[in-house]
Amino acid sequence: MLEGRWEQRWHPLREEWVIVAAHRQDRPWTGETLGDQLAGVPRFVADCYLCPGNLRSSGQRNPRYESTFVFDNDHPCVGPDAPTNLSVPREPYRVRPATGVSRVVCFSPRHDLTLAEMDSKEAQEVMGTWQREFRDLAKRPDIAHVLMFENKGKAVGVSNPHPHGQIYATDFVFKTISNEVAASERHRAETGRVLFIGILEAEAADGRRMLYENDTAVAFVPYFARYAYEVIVAPKRTHPSIASLSDAEVVDFTSALQHVLVKFDNLWRMSFPYVMLLHQAPTDENDYGAFHFHAEFHPPLRKPNLLKYLAGPEVGGGNFLSDTVPEEKAAELRALPDVHYRHVPER
Q1: R_g of the chain computed on alpha carbons
Q2: Global pTM value
């Protein structure tokens, strides 16, 4: 019986770890019943296990929190209680315990309040929470990387529409980050420059894909976008992680982030689905001065209710085929109002 299997298995062809967490099949799932649209959804939902004061499936009751709330995931993919008595596979396979930390970050006590519609101070509190969580987890000798992300919307399979993100702190570095570290270090060794600074300079010089800029942060649809409305938000100054952003940079980064989110919602006048990840350097004591912290948005829709399907080239080949032109999608987003459509007074 494999229902309770929980471990990390090595993929020798891709040279990466695959987390097997079969126990997560039984985690609560309310995403489809509550739906994607937050219009008309109350601020508090009695059977939502993320709302303040409500009972979670673990039997624990949430405090009546009034701002951002963090708790250890009741159905973790990695955790301190992962089994250690594992069956040793035949070479070239490898296995090891799925140890680490999984946390849930409830952005707000309100069930209906997304990052796009928060006021600036509320959104900055989320940023501050990410900073504190990263600093806390990065100190641990058993943690190699801290992955912070938000899955938003039924289209990406979110299990609960209460606005929230997750944190996976693992004893390995996720493959995308590992690749970015290698590319960044190689570029610096060859040119003496930070690779991401070159990306920022190229985007600024072209200008067609830029969405937003303030004193210390930018947002743009990248030249190499794989999804129709893929967007990168980044500080102008190189930081290995969110932890080292100054107070002023946090304010500016949050402003850029929210500007993008408002544009997303205004595109089709709906709560826009996406996967958002914070790209941060590993947490060991090596030099990651070439790595540039940034956030990436990967929206799954290319038209309303039409997914960007991942098929043979993407899933099997590992390379994306883009159905749209980044310059055109950036122009489409730029042309949208800067005020959220739900906040525009009715005439």
Answers
A1: 20
A2: 0.94
